[in-house]
Amino acid sequence: MAEAASLTVSVWRGAEQGSFARFEVPARANQTVLDVVTYIQRELDPSLAYRFACRVGMCGSCAMTVNGRARWTCRTHVRKVVDADGALELRPLANLPVIRDLAADLAPFFDKWSRARGTFQPKDAPDGAVPEDFAVVPPASKQRREADAGIECIGCAVCYASCDVVAWNDEYLGPAALNRAWTLVNDVRDGGRAERLDAVAGDAGCHSCHSTQSCTERCPKNLDPSSAIAGLKRALFWDTLLGRR
Ligand code: SF4
Ligand code: SF4
Ligand code: FES
From which residue to which does any coiled coil extend (predicted)? Predict the structure, then answer.
């Protein structure tokens, strides 16, 4: 099938209340969804609000809803997501307040990282001082491998926007914050395990996850928050059984 000469792009305009505006954008080889949005903003409507920084899949700031599904847009080729008529529909990420147009407000997402105690707490330096020596953590140890498996999160919120439990329960910490907590529970240099496990237990935490795996299926970095959450459940189970909580 010959490629269409142009794409019809419906773009959300406004905040929570708004409507779609339509644009015709020239189709190009190897065009990404972010290229399309940038074309619209530079050539057709300079007032369009959206967010990006690195363009190479590192910063996590360009995620949007593309034809109904959360994706990073700088690494998503149009040809892979466009429908048969060459149409694209772009909305801001779901499960977050809308600032304007394609820019969602990520404050609630990062607040939840903080509530899940997603900050490293050095074990040997209780006042936050920098330890004098580097810790040696064997790369092949089980805990190191568990931590490594989740550490490349770029904070794009694709998983958060894809999670039904987040949609149903405003308080739920969500896959990325829980994944972060799991990397720290496995960090042998960290001294905040007990408080962190307290923070991720309960209705807002890991026990509310239904293991549907949308987070894992859609994470553009191929991380597995669903397994991380299962790890937190196991850690809480054993800590409770062994009287450590
Ligand atoms: S596995 Fe859990 S965190 Fe991931 S999308 Fe499903 S309910 Fe949400
Ligand atoms: S876990 Fe994956 S989808 Fe979720 S914020 Fe991190 S990189 Fe993005
Ligand atoms: S612009 Fe940085 S990840 Fe897409």
Answer: none
Count CB-CB contacts under 10 A for residue 43: 11
Domain 6-104 falls under CATH 3.10.20.30: yes
Ligand 1 proximal residues by C-beta, below 6 Å? 162-163, 165, 175, 209-215, 225-226, 229
| pLDDT interval class at 212 (50, 70, 90) | very high
Helical spans, DSSP H, in the chain: 33-39, 78-81, 107-115, 142-150, 158-161, 164-168, 175-185, 193-200, 214-218, 225-241
- Closest by CA to 28, choosing from 86, 93, 72, 103, is 86
| Every domain range in the chain assigned CATH 1.10.1060.10 | 107-241
Confidence of residue 1 (pLDDT cuts 50, 70, 90): very low
Q: Which of 72, 77, 93, 152 to mutate to test the pocket of ligand 3 (most atoms within 8 A of CB)?
A: 72
Q: Which ligand is nearest to the CA of 56?
A: 3
Average pLDDT over residues 5-33: 96
Residue 86 Cβ inside 6 Å of ligand 2? The answer reads no
Superfamily of chain region 107-241:
Alpha-helical ferredoxin (1.10.1060.10)
